[in-house]
Amino acid sequence: MATLIKINGVTTSATKNTGVAKEVLEGATIRYALTRGGFEITLDDAKSLTNWNTAKKNKDVVPFGSIEANLENSNTEATYYEGRTIKLETKAARKGKKATHHLGIHSHSAYKSYEDSEYTRVLEFTDDGYIKGVLTPDGKLQGQLLSNYNVGIRKDATFEAPASTDIEFIYSNYRDFEENGVILEPDFDLEDFEGIYTVLLEVVGTPTATELVVKATERSAGTPVTGLAQADFEFLKDDGSPQSVSGLTANENTYTLNGTGFVSGTIATVVVEKTNIMYQADKVTVTI
Q1: Domain 197-286's class?
Q2: Contact, 255 vs 248, CB < 8 A?
Q3: Tell me, what DSSP letter sits at residue 143?
Q4: Is the pLDDT of residue 131 over 50?
């Protein structure tokens, strides 16, 4: 009989009982979130939207949009060299998953930015409302480790289909979910766990040493973003130090910052939470 040789040696584990009253089969993945490599959360905390929103605000977890079509596994089986008395693994098995998003150009660019980033784990959301992940050694939930998150070239629209972007997860170790998998039902609708919306800040008129006026709109729909406070803005000098802002007034989505000694720099916002929606504005150059 041929002998199967493993490069990392032979390991054995206890056998398990095979009887079961009911098989728990999770649904298809329809959304997902990428997490920083070290992020983990207790199983009890993972049931609460409040805790997930805290992780999102801290940028530990980034929710992505709906998978629209062509969800498929892209697994490859191990390959072997087999001789008269030995069987040697020449290429390890690989677990992968491909899917399609319909994304505008800004969203495509945003998704692409997570390739080769610190966000190396994936939590998957299923069509029956569950979160898929793995258990840490101390019993917490974390995402499956990825060796790659690949975002393909954006495909232009055709007469038969809208523009689309293909993505692929390549998991670091296919055994991880099989041996340590978690399928958890949260206490909230996963559709309510969205990514952070991008705000566009437009400098209005000519800034002076005592006044800066900006207009805030949501990037994708162009809707006004109202209710921002002075503490939500980050008005910085070119060297990164804060400008001296003494007050803010608002007229709908137009905001006037007052102060003394304003100089050229940048203005942005922190992550702002508004009734189940979070906003953040990227830096805009201010010239005085």
Answers
A1: mainly beta
A2: yes
A3: P
A4: yes
